[in-house]
Amino acid sequence: METLRWVASGLRTKAIALKMRISAATVEFRGRNARRKPGAKTCERLSPSP
């Protein structure tokens, strides 16, 4: 979920990776997995509800 929050806020993959202390590939992997969820085709739909 944290990865999705950063993506939704507009951060780039490398910046997210640095903040989370994970690799850029892991950020991309998590994003791909999130987009596989039903109804999650765009970043707006990926962002969690407040």
Automatic annotation (TrEMBL):
InterPro entries: Sig_transdc_resp-reg_C-effctor, Tscrpt_reg_LuxR_C, WH-like_DNA-bd_sf. It holds the Pfam family GerE. It comes from Notoacmeibacter marinus. Residues 10-37 form the HTH luxR-type domain. SUPFAM superfamilies: C-terminal effector domain of the bipartite response regulators. One of its GO terms (biological process) is regulation of DNA-templated transcription. Gene3D superfamilies: Winged helix-like DNA-binding domain superfamily/Winged helix DNA-binding domain. GO terms for molecular function: DNA binding. This is HTH luxR-type domain-containing protein.
